[in-house]
Design goal:
By secondary structure, the chain is an alpha/beta fold. It has ten helices and twelve strands. A twelve-stranded mixed beta sheet has the order 7-8-9-6-5-4-3-2-1-10-11-12. 43% of the residues are buried. Bound molecules: S-adenosylmethionine and iron/sulfur cluster.
Amino acid sequence: MATDLIDRFGRVHTDLRISVTDRCNFRCQYCMPAEGMEWLDRSDLLTFEEIERIARVLVETFAVKSVRLTGGEPTVRARLPVLVAKLANLGVDLSMTTNGATLAMFADDLRSAGLQRLNISLDTLDPARFLELTRRDELAKVLDGIDAAVAAGFSPVKINAVLMRGINDDEVLRFLRMGRERGVTVRFIEFMPLDAQGEWSADRVISHDEILEQASTEFDFEPIARGTSPAERFAYTDGGGEFGIIASVSEPFCESCDRIRLTAEGQVRNCLFALEHVDLRQLLRGGGTDEEIARAVAGEVDRKWAGHAIGQVHFLRPSKSMSQLGG
Ligand code: SAM
Ligand code: SF4
């Protein structure tokens, strides 16, 4: 009988985010520096067998219900569908966050292997801006990837756009039109202080009020009951689908956070902004038992703090960038 994976504030953790690699085919300005990233050696990465074992222990011991693959860019890890098939066997809600650039090639294989849901990150629909933001000229590939995901039967396909003042804050309507045309759900995400260049400031965050103001100049919509979802959801009144806002900075959802993170090198982190971690790779490779893995994860979750404290004097940035933590 599984027990709850619970922290000292009583939050139950059921959502496991697994970063399968720290590498990426993009270099998004807000996520990693253009040059100078030091990649993990292959031998430092958890193997598929190690990832599967950790996930299995957490599913069996603590009833973890959802697993999301992320990175770095998960699709740059060779033979990813093999890992997807192993995790799909655990009977969890299995999803992935990707930059979408290789989905035209991999969407069908991932779907056949058992991946259920896809979030695609895309921050601008302007090719020149896309090149500047991601340092790659691949907007057309991402748009093809979105269509390939829909054609492969992923439903809903969600597009996550991080809005930043002075960079892409004039694209709300463009994104909403694109979502309606392509049959995907657009979600706007607030810019967080995990950018590799340390250029984040509170005045660059586009608040949900500003997004709704722009959206209402063209569309009629009404709020949908949110439940425990971090996204505020809005349905178009003409039946044209929905869009969402994830206000992680201005309206943090830490109080109901149910996530734990496993990094590509096997660290368990209890928060994106955690300053500490427990090293499961060392435990696994040193012959640790399933019970020891479960105990180590439970200890890390127990230490979780109440919230991320962005904007408060005692807030400290973690030393890792978003690409190393998994978003
Ligand atoms: N490469 C994949 C992708 O881009 O979807 C997965 C990893 S990426 C680190 C996960 C998510 O983190 C993406 O949606 C990305 O937009 C988001 N992200 C990265 N840096 C961010 C920041 N400083 N603030 C908010 N979101 C950020
Ligand atoms: Fe790569 Fe995703 Fe980070 Fe962009 S946001 S650099 S695609 S890991």
